[in-house]
Amino acid sequence: MSLCDGRKGDGAHMTISSEVRRLSARWVQGNGWPQRLEWIQISNLRGWNGQKISLPYPIMAVVGENGVGKSTVLQCAAAIYKSKPPSQSGRKREKKKPNYASDYFPETVWDKIKDAVIRFQFRQGINNPAKTGEVRKPGNRWRGNPTRPERPVVYIDLSRIQPIISRVGYSRLANAQLKEKSSVNFDETRLKRFSGIMGRDYQTAKMSYTNFDENRAVPVLGQSGHTYSGFHQGAGETVLAELIQAEIPKYSIVLIDEVESSLHPRLQRRLIRDLAEVCRLQELQIILTTHSPFVLDELPLEARVQIVQSYSNSKESRSIVYGITPEFAMSKMDDVVQHECDLYVEDRQAERMLIEILAAHCGNPDSVLRCIAIPYGAASVGQSLGIMAVQKRWERKTFIFLDGDQQPCAGCYLLPGGDAPERVVFEALRAKNWPNIAQRTGREYSKVADACLQAMSLSDHHVWISSAASALCLGGNTLWQALCAEWATGCLDSAEAKKISQPIEDALNGLGVSIPAISAKEVEEINTSDIVEVLPPMPQAIPTIPDDSGGPWLPFEQS
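Above: the chain sequence. Below: its structure as tokens.
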């Protein structure tokens, strides 16, 4: 999608669900979750060479391309704890064994593991200090198992759940002459959760066993007076039944691989909300992997972490980036693009400001069509991306932009004005008495002036657009585009504009990508590490995300 293509929807970020807001409210109080895993550092294992994954929120979504190491993170988290897996309803006949790193990282004729180290920091008790530990494999055997902390571990690999008929030994159960010998019914709470996620009223849900095989469970569901087994269920029903039936003790660490497997977007959203509620009530720590923008969109910024694999001088490296937007995540996992240059910005307000700067000040009007702007979220993400730019990790022409109210950072350009985009644009246009905004929006001048001035009286500049747009009966992106276009053509100094537009045009003309100058010492310090880790600030209160047309705008619908 080019910069001039339309965006689906005219509204704001997805409103954070009440379930996730309640979880955040409980989390920031700091008086729960006596068992916490705070970070994991992985070395010499499946291409990891010392990168650290921090876990600042009770539900963490790990996103990235296939093969970057998402499942490795889950398996390391499981190996950290000394725990027998809890029994699961419907699987009570399975033999249980402890979790060991060797279970997840076996040596084979093709895979030799040497000098692997899994370091971690954890808490046992709310008022107890954090402790560190490690599990390592210096030679033939893993060391450190006896000193691991104890905690219930629930590992659920939804990506490997096959249709019932495809599972080994299950085809023999497709026989009408067999009888149900026993079953484990979902209790009332599980049945309610299952029905709520599916959006249907199920009267029955159970895991059943036949008289032919007492060890292979078959999910059986009942709704609208009909009962049917896993042989006739949809894939989403089977996956959810397997997930909901798991026994999860209080304070467990729950590890879910590919949480969106077989679920359509609305079910993905409902599942995350359900997990948020269970997480809050049972003080669980959940780490999940995903490729889904809908899963990410349900969680706050501090709950999102992306593993970005890049190459520099034929050297592979991983970067850990926190607080990413769903769009940034998808841009790193999809090749269906026709643009030539990536422009990373903090949010949709910054994107529109940049678009209008380029549209008004690029010498070649086609330049803007050859670029795409990608919102990345927290400023800390931009700082991290700037470091990657200095390290020349980007394969495409790439520019990183921070809002003008941020401090200069290696590899990053600052947007003009020295302040947040809303403040820069509104204040500059107010000084000129809102020129041409009435014509651009089709509203009366007096109403435009009154609406914008009233919005500026609000202390939070993030709601200025939504406030003024509502008063003018406009969509937030419609008003913001008009404001930015008039500001870029009538207020922005051409010399300031050229500081942004010229490097982009040069890159498009084959003159190479330039980055803001930094000292040789700064470059040397950056190049000494392949690890990029910048955490977003932890929230002090639950963020309020406007539910009107004030932007920023995401192309994902609310369920």
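The mean pLDDT is 84.
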